[in-house]
Amino acid sequence: MKNAETPVFKLVLFGAQSSLGNALMDELLARQHEVIAIVDDLNRHAPRPGLHFKIGALGDADQAEQGAAGGSAVIALLSPGDLAAQVQASEALVAGLARTTIRRLLLVGDFDVLDEPGKYIEAERACVDRVVDGLQRSALRWTLINMPPTLADEGLARVAAGMVDMLELDLHRGEHLNFVV
Prior knowledge:
Blueprint: E1 10-14, H1 19-30, E2 34-39, E3 51-55, H2 61-68, E4 73-77, H3 83-97, E5 104-109, H4 122-137, E6 141-146, H5 153-169, E7 175-177
Parallel strand pairs: 1-2, 1-4, 2-3, 4-5, 5-6, 6-7
């Protein structure tokens, strides 16, 4: 039963089809939050109480804004490996969220270059610098999170629980984090 005094997030989740996305949906629903999962095919997903689906992507600011509409916070799981695509998606997200009332963002991607810049070429460092610069110039309360390595279901559940804790407690704003499982 839902406690009327407990604040409820209406969380928008980009990247819901991934393993981490599924773990996040499970954790959020278990804590009685609502989830708006942004997907590319509505027919592939089974309905669950508190779970809503929208067609969308992070191709441009309009798509990001439309996907995020109606939410109170956003978690975006970016595809790891292609830093240029992460820049494009994060810029679309920042521009789209600027047109909404949403201010809380957890951005999950390939940000290891911030921890070990010497291991990356200048172009890769420049990509991640663009992401960080865009976030710092925005009005968003953001957190950058390195995509965790491939984990078993138990590890994914623990990472998802930590991310939901960050949202509920409004922790780690303006920080870059790694989950150690």
